Structures are given as structure tokens and as C-alpha cells.
Amino acid sequence: MRNLATQAARLMAICGGLVLTLLIVLICISVVGRSLNGLLHGWIGSVMPGLSAWALDLGVGPINGDFELVEAGVAFAIFAFLPLCQISAGHASVDIFTAKLPMRINRVLQLGIDVIFAIVLISIAYQLYNGMLSKQSYGDTTFLLQFPIWWAYAASLSGAVLTAVIAFYVAGIRAVECLRGEDILSQEPGLDL
Amino acid sequence: MSNLEIGLASFPALLILIFIRVPIGLAMFLVGLVGLYFTTGSFNLPLARLKSETFSTFSSYSLSIVPMFLLMGHFATLGGMSSALFKAAESFLGHRKGGIAMAAIGACAGFGSICGSSLATAATMGRVALPQLRKYGYSGGFSTATLAAGGTLGILIPPSIVLVIYAILTEQNIAKLFLAAFIPGILAALGYVIAISIYVRLHPEAAGVKAAVPYADRFAALFKVWPVLLVFALVVGGIYQGWFTPTEGAAVGAAGTGFIAWMNKGLTRSTLIESFLVTAKSSAMIFFIILGAGFYNGFLALTQVPQEISNFVVSQGFSPWVVLSIILLFYLVFGCLMDSLSMILLTIPIFFPVIVELDFGMSQEQIAIWFGILVLIVVEVGLITPPVGMNLFVINAMDRSTPLAQTYKVVMYFVASDIARVILLVAFPAITLFWLRA
Amino acid sequence: ADYSFNLQSFLPAQATIPSKIIDVWADNVEQASGGRIEINRYAAMQLGGKPPELIDQVLDGVIDMTWNVVGYTPGRYPSTEVFELPFLVNDAGPASAAFWKMLEADIAEREFGNLKVLGGWVHGPGVIHANKAVTVPSDFNGMKIRGASRQVNAMLKELGATPVGMPVPAVPEALSKGVIDGTTIPWEVTKALKVPELVEHHTEFTGPMLYTVTFVLVMNKDKFAALPADLQAVIEDNSGLEFSIFAGTTQQAYDTPGRDVAVNRGNSIVTLDVAQSAVWAEAAQPVYGAWIEEMKGRGLDGQAMIDQATALMNAN
Ligand code: NA
Ligand code: NA
What we know:
The structure holds three protein chains of three kinds.
Chain A: H1 2-41, H2 43-47, H3 49-57, H4 66-87, H5 103-138, H6 149-180
Helix pairs in contact in A: 1-4, 1-6, 4-6, 5-6
Chain B: H1 3-19, H2 24-40, H3 44-58, H4 65-78, H5 81-93, H6 99-112, H7 118-135, H8 140-156, H9 161-170, H10 174-202, H11 215-223, H12 226-241, H13 246-263, H14 269-303, H15 305-316, H16 320-335, H17 340-357, H18 364-381, H19 390-398, H20 404-427, H21 429-433
Helix pairs in contact in B: 1-2, 1-14, 2-3, 2-14, 3-14, 4-13, 4-14, 5-6, 5-11, 6-7, 6-8, 6-10, 7-8, 7-19, 8-10, 8-18, 8-19, 8-20, 9-17, 9-18, 10-18, 10-20, 12-13, 14-17, 15-17, 16-17, 16-18, 17-18, 18-20
Chain C: E1 3-8, H1 16-32, E2 37-42, H2 54-59, E3 65-69, H3 92-111, E4 115-122, E5 127-130, E6 144-146, H4 150-158, E7 162-164, H5 171-176, E8 182-185, H6 187-190, H7 195-198, E9 201-204, E10 214-220, H8 221-225, H9 229-238, H10 241-253, H11 255-264, E11 268-271, H12 274-284, H13 286-297, H14 302-315
Parallel strand pairs in C: 1-2, 6-7, 6-8, 9-11
Antiparallel strand pairs in C: 3-10, 4-10, 5-8, 5-9
The complex binds sodium ion (2 copies).
């Protein structure tokens, strides 16, 4: 079970990483296209008008709607990154004041925090779903590519739902930790920023 | 309770939650949510906000710079840039008294010019430089403290994730902030080198000696640093020259360092996945804090607390310099306990409206940029001040033989140099604003 | 006050619309209610979220009121786009009156059914602000120009420019960095965005406007319904046709001080004459066909809306 959750979170994060990489490539192509477009209209156009016209007809220029694609893509990526952060206790916290408390109290505290965290993340996923439904019913699109915004919501929802499931699972583990009095998952905050 | 009272009551509530180890993003989120419940009398409003606010926070074009800069830092390491930098700096400085520590600072500064994060710089350079420092007889505390301090150069020298967040929060120009951070960043590196030379004079036993390297080898080592220069020039230069937006600059930088890593055979399937996972964890952490802060700050605005505080401070006629000093001191104290990004997100919406209304004899934009750099420095000091200093923890975890207490002792020399720099920059705003004269 | 409402919007408090239009309206409502209604104004998205979310924030009850650029939710309010078609509108006053009448007649019911629409208006003539002189459409070739809405971007594309979609607050930085070569906005907002300091060339048209953009002032429907009848009347008396005309004419009037900034800086302002403007109108013509075709797909008669808008504007 624990292995399954970790594997799912890792897989999701890798998907997010791949989308992030695609966005990076897309932006680079757009930047190059924009510069070339400027040159074709500029000195290339005056030196080699034929070549220039041919390249411009091919559509050499910035990628239409790159801004919108980055916004949709990065939302998916961040939602896809959240499950890993959740299962590996990667959220920043201040533990100096609780470090001196007895182990038992710390476990109860951690249980409380993770139960609340689970409730919050389940609400976030549920409200994202509702948001998707309203975007769908209003027919909102993006400016230039005019793809429906709810597609981007739907993609993000996959990460949000996995995060909610994992948060629920982590809260369950904490309850077991409390009862058994032993650590199962790490409580160390992630240090690899 | 009036809205104003609810807003004011949220401060202690937030502190208590944070101090009982509630993750900072979650704490801000909860206080914002409960606060909205008290001000509006129902949970409908906070829940309705969630329908679009998580998506719109995460789908930010400007914030997409954060995961891209994180990925760029990883690729730079995979491409061998961190070790190339350290070898070059070591070949020039290593034979001097405390020279390897100085070289580590130099390499951190170099790496900081292509990496936007402090912890990543500390961790990366720690892996490269720590074994060398220990091999040549540098004491444990001296070695770890040097690298922890050097790590802060990752943020102080542009590009810098914290500055990006500050720019977005205060609607300032990212390129101008990067430019303004440049001289203070160089001063930081120089200040650390001075701190090292003072420390080795007082504690000569804490550093060993290393034979000098022939000049031919030095320049050979220096030559290997060219990809770093290229990427820095392309990213920071390109953003400033207007070849691309900051986000485009981050993408070009990530692609460039990724390509160099691939050329140097550092980028394999497994290291790429590793980069994704580490980037994922850090990005998720940062964005969740941003989400919580957005929720909390929206609630605070509704209670009118930031305006009231600003009105109060301005109407009292305090000296602007006293107000500024108090704010900076506040960051220094809280920096002992909290991480830099959380502090910025939590406090800038309250402090910024106060600061720009005060009369420092500068335009609002100049104040905003100068204040941004000062805040950047004081929150970064927090990364190396005991007891909670993330950089200290990261480096110490790499050298289990050194007790944290020893690191604490030596790092105070670097903290002293930071404080001296802050005083210098407060006294002479022109240093920060030098490049920005129209 | 017995009833307290939160009104959030995206421009800074000192910009024309918040300070010269919305504040006036809100003060009038507060005063006419004898202090029973209070309208708290939050500028620059202080309460959170991004500009395109404002309408949803009202719908979901996160805030009670907003004014917003209708085009910020592309595709949701297709009928309002009739006023955004190139070279259709002559003057913001009559156009705002016509827009309100069409909202009142059927658009509000059909497309804003879940909102209480209190006003609808358009801004003054859209002007081209660019880093080089633009006098004929072919000057646009290879230029990255930012447009405010779906129809404006469609027009820019038709005219030969590369349209770039970005939020207004990003315009100054994008201009100063050369990420875009120009932007289309009315004179009125150029002052706040420091556009005349960033580009030196401005192109105005004679006759119909290159384009305009629609705005609405809306309120949460349930919050309005929950008011006693006399206070509902107070709000309605201060809203509607008269307010919409006031908003349109006021916004257009503030074009002059905005233009003065560019004049005083010695920028080059080209005012195309009737014949030159006609060349642009001709080039932009295909936008009409595409829009009418798209409306057909949505079961709307685009040509009838164009005719109705034109007739109403001429009647005023
Ligand atoms: Na940096
Ligand atoms: Na600290």
C-alpha cells in the first residue's frame, strides 16, 4: 500500500516534470521563432526577399498562444507535483518548539495536522471539480487558441485528486502510528529546495 | 468582534499554529479560511474562493519561472558546472590561508549566477567542496559554516526565486530587481571572503595549507567555466536586454543547462527522473505556501488591517529610517525561526504599503526596489542564523562528524558580515540603485 | 449600514474607472440609501484572485459586485462582442446607451441570467501605440501587438500583426523589454501604464473607432434579491441607462488628459484621415464574416445584432 502510494506520487511527479520540459521546449521554440520572424522582416527580408517571404509563409514566428499553453501546463505540473510533496512530508514547517516534546505528543500533533491537511486537500480537489463544472457550463475559452478552459481544469484535477487520496492515506497512517507508538512515515521536512 | 479585531487576532493565531509545526502554507490557509468564516459568518465564501483560486494560483505565467529555475539549477549540477567552478576557484585561491574556503565562496557566487535557489546552491556546492575542505584540514565547523553562508549567494546573486516572488507581490519589474541585486550580491561574496580571512587569523589551526597550482593549470581550469558564463549571460543578460520575458529566460536557461548536461553525459534517464522528483517536491512546497499566503492575504485585506497599519504608521510621523530599521530587525529575529519565502509572503503585503508611503527622498519605484533588496538580504541571513537555519541543516546533514553547535559558532562571523552589509546598503541606497539610474 | 457590500476590481484605485466612475456611482448609492447601504471598494485585486475570475467571484458570492472587461472571460458573453467589431462604433456615449439597451432587452437575460447587471458601457477610441510608425496595415507585418479581447486579437491578426495575449498589467514590462512591439488601448489608460514613456508612435483614426471594448457593472443576484424593495429601487435608480451613458462618456473624456501626456513628451501622433482609415476598415472586414459565422454556430443572428446596434447608436 505504502509502496503503491509512493509509486503513484512519483509517477505523477514525473508526468508533471515531462509537461514542464515540454513547456520549456515550447517557450524556446517560440523565442527562436519570434527572433527569426523579426529578422525575416528585417535584414534577411531586405537581403533575400524570396527566402524571407517563403519562410514567413511557412509561418516562422512565435507559437500562437504560447502564454496560454504555459499557464495551462504549469497548473497541471504543480498539481502533479503535490502528491509527492504530501507523501514525503515535503511541506515547510517550524519544528524547533515541538522537538523537545515527548514522542507521544508529537505523534498526536502530527495526526491532528495531517487530518486537517487531508480535509483541506479533499476540499481543494472537490472545489476544483466544481470550478471545472462551472467553466464547462459557461463555455469559457482562452484568448487566442480558444480551447475550453475546463480542459486545463480537468487535467489539473488528476493531480488534485491523487493529492487528496494520498493526504487521506497519510492521515490514516498517522493514526496507526499513534496507536502503535512507532514511526512508519518520515516526519522530517524536505530539505532539498 | 469587529473585522479589524479579527484581522489583528489572526497574527497570534497564525504564530501559534506555525510554532506547533503546522506546515506554514497550511497554517496561512487555515487562518485565512477561519478568518473569512468569522468576518462573513459562513464557510460559503472561502469554499467558493477555492473553485477557481487554486487553479489560478498554480496557472500563473510569472510563477512558472519557479520550477524552471529549480530545474535549471539541477541540470547545471548534472552538467558538472558546480565542480568546474570550484576547481577553477580553488586553483587560484586554494594555496592561500583559508583559500579553499574562499574558493568555495567564489564557486557559490558563480553557481548562484545560474541557480535561483539558496538551498540548492548550498547543497550542490556542499557536495563538491565539503570533501576538499575536510581533506585539507579545514575544521568541521569552519567548513560547514562557509558552505551554508555561500549557499545564500544562490539567492543574493540573480537570478533569484525570492526576488521573483517579491516582484510579483509588489508589482515591480523583475529585470530591474535582478539588476539591483547584482552589486549587493558581489558585496556579499566579498564580505564572506573578508569574514573568512578574519576567522583564519583568529583561528589559524582551523585551516590547513595546500600547494599552489601552476598558472597553466589555473587557466585550464578557468576555461572549463565557460558554460556558466554563457548561461548567465544568456539568461540574466537576455532578460535585461529584453530578448525575452523572465519566464522565457528561465526556460532558455533550463534548456541550455539541460543541453550542456546532456553533452557532458550527465543527463541520463535516471538523473533526469531524479531532477524531476526534486524539482517537484520543492515546487509543490513553494506553490502551496503561495496558495496559503494568497488566501490569508485576501482575508487580511477584507479586514482592512494592512491599510490601518499603514495609516497608523504614516500618521504617527515616525522617522522613516526608524520604521525601516524596525522592519529589518523583525526579519532578522523571525529569520531565526522561519524560512525566507514564507516570511516574504506573510509580511510583504503588510510592510510594503507602509514603506512606500514613507519619505526617503526617493521615488516609490526606487524605494520598492531598494527595500526589496534589503528584505532579500535579511531574510537570507535567516537561512544561516541559529537555531533554525535551513542552509545550516542541509550542510550539516552532509557532515555528520561535525556537531551543529560548532557550525553555529563559526557562522556568526558570516552573519556579522551580512549585518555590516545591510547597514551599508541602508545608509547608501545609491549602491543598490546604481545600475538603475535612467 | 444595514447592508454592506464588497466591490472588487483589478485596476489601481486611482485609475479612471475606479475613481471617476465606480466611486461616483457607489457614493451616490450610499447617499441615496441614507447610509443604509455601504459599498466597500477593493482595487487591484486586493481580496485575491486574477482579473478573469472577477465575474465568477460575484457569481459564487466571494464578492458582491464588480466591474470588469467582458472580454476577460472569452466565449462566455458572445453577444456583447458586437460592439467590439472593428470600425463599428463612433462615440462611447451613444454606443454605451445602445449597449445598455441591448443588455436590457435580451442579452442580460440570455447571457448574464445569473447576475444582476447594473450598467454596461464601452471605452473611447482604441489607439495603436507602437515602437515604430504605423500608417497602413502592412506596417503591422512582423509586429507583435497586444490586444484586449478575442475580437480585438482576431482583428489584429486580420490586419497582419502577430496578436499577443497578455493581461494589461504586463503591458508596460513587455513593451519596455521589446517582448511586444506595440499595444492597442485607449488613451485613457496609457497614463497609468506609462505607455507614452515606453513607445513614441501612436496611431489614431478618423471616423469610426478601430475598436472598443465592453465593460459591465454587475452584482450578485441573490444579494440584490435579498434587499428590501426601497433599497433595490435606490440601486436601480442610480444604475441602468443613465449610469451607462455617464460611464461611457466619462471614460472617453479622460482620453484627452491621457493623450496630452504623449503630446507633451513630443511623441509622434499620426491621425489617419478618412481615406487612410477606410483602408484599415476594408482590411479588417473579414472579422465580420467570421464573427457572424461563429454566432450562427451558437444559434445567434450576428447580422441582426450588428443592425440593431447600429440603429440604436444612430438613434442617439
Ligand atoms: Na542566483
Ligand atoms: Na535562521
